[in-house]
Amino acid sequence: MTKPMLSIRDLRREYDAGSSRVIALDGVTVDLTAGTFTAVMGPSGSGKSTLLHCAAGLDRPTSGEVTLDGVRLGDLDETGLTLLRRERIGFVFQAFNLISSLTAAHNVALPVRLAGRRIDQAAVMAALDEVGLADRAQHRPVELSGGQQQRVAIARAMVTRPAVIFADEPTGALDNQTSRRVLELLRDLATGRGQTIVMVTHDPVAAAVADSVLLLTDGRLVDHLDGASAEAIASRMARAEATC
Ligand SMILES: Nc1ncnc2c1ncn2[C@@H]1O[C@H](COP(=O)(O)OP(=O)(O)OP(=O)(O)O)[C@@H](O)[C@H]1O
Question: How far apart are CA 114 and CA 53, in angstroms?
């Protein structure tokens, strides 16, 4: 059997909230194979962002284990986690998170610079070309539309060729047509390049582009849908929300 690219074992994350404890994740176990595109869904407060943050080494679980590309995150100190994030993980956020004073090309090159590596201009341009923005390389974010900014963010997440890309509501701020373009790009990264994509979304249409959907409720993984249609996902979500 092939080893999973991302293995999550009995993940639990509790938060102190005054006198009580909030259980954000309550024993989540899942394996994701390399080259797959997975959507994470669930009602508000069900633990989607917490799962993404723990899986990406941005947050430490209370207990349980995450293994990414063969590395046990729990074995790493903060420096080790930072290096792992720089070298093996890409991030795409709803708010794009581009640096406003930098051109598109400089934004894309940023992870390479942060990793202290030589910037390969050809690789930066190839990433921009892949997202259809080669002619916008010298533009700053303010000169780009929301969809174009998100495509720059995807080019930035691709440029180090990370094993796993985590996307938190990447289409949340985009219109339908632009969303479709961004989702197609993520789809191509999984299918064409074998990268593993994990995307949090509230949108069943976006989730239907993924290979499978993980459904969280109250910090628990309650369903795993494979190849479901947007309608099937929407109706499963409605049931999950009704039981909250
Ligand atoms: N830093 C924190 N301190 C205390 N409680 C937290 C903290 N972060 C998250 N929580 C709680 O953990 C639970 C899960 O939160 P999380 O943000 O993972 O949910 P979500 O599914 O991503 O929600 P949404 O769809 O609304 O973004 C919620 O009850 C939330 O209030």
Answer: 20
